[in-house]
Amino acid sequence: MSKGQDTKTAILDEALQIASQVGFEGLTIGQLAERTEMSKSGLFAHFRSKEQLQLQTLEHSRRWFIDTVIRPALAAPRGEARVRALFDAWLRWEEVLDGGCVYVTAAVEYDDRPGAMRDALSSHQQEWLESIATMVRTAVAEGDFREDTDPDQFAFELHALTLGYHQFVRLLDDDLALRRARASFERLVACYHS
Amino acid sequence: MSKGQDTKTAILDEALQIASQVGFEGLTIGQLAERTEMSKSGLFAHFRSKEQLQLQTLEHSRRWFIDTVIRPALAAPRGEARVRALFDAWLRWEEVLDGGCVYVTAAVEYDDRPGAMRDALSSHQQEWLESIATMVRTAVAEGDFREDTDPDQFAFELHALTLGYHQFVRLLDDDLALRRARASFERLVACYHS
User: Fold this and answer.
1) Domain residue limits at A111
2) What integer pLDDT is reported at residue B1 of this predicted model?
3) How far apart are CA A185 and CA B9, in angstroms?
4) Is residue A111 within 8 angstroms of chain B, CB to CB?
């Protein structure tokens, strides 16, 4: 990686932490300049516009998500073990960013706001749901989950579970959040078990 | 109801619609003045500060939520029927406001922001979770749900399901969102059925 790429990565890491706390709309070049101790004009040279900063930060979070959640799951054996590894990795993802899962924040910011950010976000979410469904399909093929399992339904339910966990941890300070999420996951898996 | 109360209710109805679309932080006296065709100074007389406007709008949404979700459920027979009525009523709640469930938006806005809004929101959410748990407890007492049902776990899972549905409908424009949410609810009920 060149020095220029290193710098850009370090800036985007910081931008992602800010977005997880105050949202992508709250992320400004001014704030980023303060946190990275770079000049505003230097940052403008990297991003040119606020929307470019937002889009590149969202794309950066996609790479983080793949490294933190998808790759570790793919390293696990095919089948139920991989679905379990995916869930465990998602729980770590929730802790990687200061403000928790940046997608939960972004979904609320852009669901009513058509444009490039909404399109990118929606496509990342579809990609996540398809990753879950694919791993579930493999678990059916391996004989771990029932033949009549609907992989997209499983994906919806696992995704809903992660949203519930995020809110319990962040808003309700619920000590039990992790226990609730794990119990919910076990019930989900048990329901689809062959 | 006096004319003054009617006016206040009409203002808060409008404020709630705005908050559901742009969030409580995006809700301003200026925007509200435009939508209600009232003067800013007239609105200042009602609310005195932006935080008061936010808090009173949140409290107003609590009354709407009770009327839309809790009361219709309590009109249903005790037991599983009431839990089903609660879920059906929640699905209507999602459609009552232009921007969908205002609590999903508020949770993301205030989870990292200590203060009166976060406290009020957290207390409304706890109240909602306790309402679910109480209805589930009754369903256990009526013999509809298994003796070993954990009502708080059920509440977590139903709440997570509503968050998943909200996001599918709002962000992913998923035609299947309602079918997914209903299938998920049926699986939830089936798991706890006696």
Assistant:
1) 58-192
2) 59
3) 42
4) yes
Per the domain annotation, does B12 fall within a domain?
no
* Residues of chain B contacting A165 with CB distance shorter than 8 Å: 160
Does the residue A26 lie in any domain?
A: no
Residue B13 belongs to some domain of the structure: no
Contact A173, A114 (CB under 8 A): no
Taking the Cβ of residue B112 and every Cβ of chain A, the question of whether any pair is shorter than 8 Å is answered with: yes
Locate A144 and state its tokens: 């771990």
B100/A111 CB distance under 8 A: yes
pLDDT value, residue A66 = 97
A25 in contact with B, Cβ within 8 Å:
no
Q: What is the pTM of this model?
A: 0.92
Residue A69's nearest CA partner among A99, A103, A98 is A103
A2 vs A129, residue with greater confidence: A129
Residue B17 in any domain: the answer is no
Residue range A4-62, pLDDT digits in tens: 788 899 999 999 999 998 899 989 999 999 999 999 999 988 898 999 999 999 999 99
> Cβ contacts (< 8 Å) between B183 and chain A: which residues?
150, 153
Contacts of A181 in chain B (CB under 8 A): 156
Choose among B121, B168, B172: nearest Cβ to A171.
B121
Measured in angstroms, the CA of B157 and the nearest CA of chain A are apart by 7
Q: What is the largest CA-CA distance in chain B?
A: 59
B68 shares contact with chain A (CB less than 8 Å): no
Cβ of B1 under 8 Å from any chain A Cβ? Answer: no
CATH number at residue B145: 1.10.357.10
Has residue A108 got a pLDDT over 90? no
Interface of B with A in 127-156 (CB under 8 A): 150, 152-153, 156
pLDDT under 70: residue ranges of chain B:
1, 173
Q: What is the mean pLDDT of residues A61-66?
A: 96
Q: What is the pLDDT of residue A53?
A: 95
B62 CB neighbour count, 10 Å cutoff:
18
Q: Are A44 and A29 in contact (CB under 8 A)?
A: yes
What residues in A contact B156, CB-CB < 8 Å? 164, 168, 180-181, 184
Residue A171: what pLDDT?
83
Half-sphere exposure of B113 (CA within 13 A, CB side): 16
ipTM score above 0.95: no
- Angstrom distance (rounded) from CA B173 to CA B117: 30
Total domains present in chain A: 1
